[in-house]
Task: inverse folding
């Protein structure tokens, strides 16, 4: 389980989980679930386009996820953000469908881009993963406070002269970078799952930002490792386990966090009746 | 005329089916879409297509009717989102995201299992992107029937739904059960999305749900006007898309036609972008940046 090609899977999976845990924490905090879903899906179209003209798929992924981030960030301010995100998403998917109709990409390639092929990661693919992952982590470390303040108390941030819109767009660009590095490994559909389930679970366990951020990374790592081990054991797609384990992690966290809340509610009822 | 209508367009059977089905789905999606946009539930509307896809993939693997798989999958997803969803928009999006993640995991498994049993090929692409030209004429009546049921449900709850979307407090004061209304709308949305994603694919489903409705809401002054305009825009975009996709067979020497979804989406997004032109022009005239 820990030899040869599996070693690459463990290493890339660990990197992806750390980045997803960190970036995902802010995705959940800022309520950017829809853009975080739209950007990887749009990036998929970029890979299809790169495939069509015969260049490195990473270039296509990067370009399209960046365009998606900038488009959603700038246009979303003028209209309804959710409408703009939905339209940006379908526009990119439609471009992807058009690229695919003109190229001869066959079924397994499409499946891999959507659902990932972590067991097929080569050592050469690890390099961009490390570089982009490090950039993401550094940018988030630098912007940690502004990101937190604009997410939690936007009025205070505005009063201090922080530009919410600049931070918004910068954050979407970080999501785009995280997408570019992770889509070849876990696929467009599942990076979203990993940026959603573990951070949401962590958020319902702790309201202290730094603790929740740490928990988010720990849970993401747990989900990722368990998924790789299960995929190796039962020979089913990694994506299925990532999706299932993320949902289970969230359900358990919600159950744990519900207990004190019900107690508070009973107290409240006892006092008011 | 030959340039616009490639030979055989008017007499082709698949074209008739595509036009009829496209128009039906476009109208139902536009009507449901207006309420979806007003309630800021675009994400749920889109996520349900992926959840429905999981249902469709599961049906494909088990060998049961695909339409049933799509609608059941979508309904189950809608119920799950409403169950964990909290009323605040942020938490609601997280709930949607969790359901969406679990569903895509299931799709990954079903597609994998189906590909391994080797019964069919190309199902990943077909289910995701759909093709109006490959619809069996038998699906028409079923889609029509469920479409009528969806619109009927909207007519029944329309007024209560609008009030509880725009002002939940007023609705509660007026004696409307906002929670039930929201659940009924979620189920209506789920059926409509399930239908449209089996008929025209996941991409077009979201495009026709959100695009025409969002444009109409920017242009029309009344709710009734928005509903009518959204339906018209949806039908026009779909018909034009079918026409252009049919024509595109002759555009390149390789005769690789572009997908219908591509044209419809481009038309829908361009329409929405055009609704901004009057605003930008007014700003330019008054000298604001």
Result:
């Amino acid at each position: 389980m820990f030899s040869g090609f599996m070693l690459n899977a463990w290493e890339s999976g660990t990197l992806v989980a750390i980045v997803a845990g960190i970036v995902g924490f802010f995705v959940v905090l800022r309520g950017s679930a829809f853009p975080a879903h739209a950007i990887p899906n749009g990036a998929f179209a970029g890979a299809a386009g790169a495939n069509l003209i015969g260049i490195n798929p990473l270039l296509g992924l990067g370009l399209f996820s960046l365009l998606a981030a900038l488009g959603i960030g700038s246009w979303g301010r003028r209209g309804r953000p959710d409408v703009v995100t939905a339209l940006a998403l379908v526009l990119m998917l439609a471009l992807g469908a058009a690229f695919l109709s003109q190229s001869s990409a066959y079924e397994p390639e499409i499946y891999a881009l959507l659902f990932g092929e972590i067991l097929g990661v080569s050592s050469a693919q690890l390099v961009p993963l490390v570089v982009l992952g490090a950039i993401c982590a550094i940018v988030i470390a630098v912007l940690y406070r502004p990101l937190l303040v604009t997410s939690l108390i936007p009025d205070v941030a505005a009063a201090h002269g922080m530009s919410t819109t600049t931070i918004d767009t910068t954050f979407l660009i970080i999501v785009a970078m995280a997408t570019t590095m992770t889509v070849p490994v876990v696929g467009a559909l599942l990076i979203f799952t990993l940026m959603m389930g573990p951070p949401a679970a962590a958020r319902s366990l702790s309201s202290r930002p730094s603790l929740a951020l740490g928990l988010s990374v720990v849970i993401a790592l747990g989900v990722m490792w368990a998924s790789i081990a299960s995929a190796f054991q039962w020979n089913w797609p990694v994506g299925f386990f990532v999706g299932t384990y993320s949902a289970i992690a969230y359900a358990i966290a919600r159950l744990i966090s519900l207990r004190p809340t019900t107690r508070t509610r009973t107290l409240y009822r006892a006092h008011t009746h | 005329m030959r340039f616009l209508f490639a030979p055989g367009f008017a007499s082709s059977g698949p074209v008739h089916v595509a036009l009829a089905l496209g128009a039906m789905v476009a109208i139902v999606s536009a009507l449901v879409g207006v309420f979806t946009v007003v309630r800021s539930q675009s994400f749920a509307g889109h996520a349900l297509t992926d959840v429905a896809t999981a249902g469709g993939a599961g049906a494909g693997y088990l060998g049961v009717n695909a339409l049933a798989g799509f609608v059941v999958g979508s309904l189950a997803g809608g119920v799950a989102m409403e169950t964990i969803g909290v009323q605040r928009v942020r938490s609601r999006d997280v709930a949607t995201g969790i359901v969406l993640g679990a569903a895509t995991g299931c799709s990954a498994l079903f597609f994998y299992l189906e590909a391994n049993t080797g019964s069919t090929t190309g199902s990943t692409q077909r289910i995701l992107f759909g093709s109006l030209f490959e619809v069996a004429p038998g699906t028409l009546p079923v889609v029509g029937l469920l479409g009528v049921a969806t619109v009927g449900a909207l007519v029944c709850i329309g007024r209560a739904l609008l009030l509880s979307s725009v002002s939940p407090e007023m609705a509660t004061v007026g004696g409307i059960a906002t929670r039930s209304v929201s659940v009924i709308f979620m189920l209506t949305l789920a059926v409509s999305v399930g239908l449209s994603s089996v008929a025209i694919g996941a991409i077009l489903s979201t495009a026709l749900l959100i695009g025409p409705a969002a444009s109409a809401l920017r242009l029309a002054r009344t709710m009734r006007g928005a509903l009518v305009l959204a339906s018209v825009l949806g039908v026009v975009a779909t018909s034009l898309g079918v026409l252009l996709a049919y024509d595109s067979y002759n555009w390149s020497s390789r005769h690789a036609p572009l997908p219908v979804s591509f044209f419809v989406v481009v038309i829908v997004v361009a329409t929405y972008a055009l609704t901004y032109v009057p605003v930008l022009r007014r700003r330019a005239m008054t000298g604001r940046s």
In short: Residues 13-210 of chain B form a domain with the ABC transporter involved in vitamin B12 uptake, BtuC fold (CATH 1.10.3470.10).
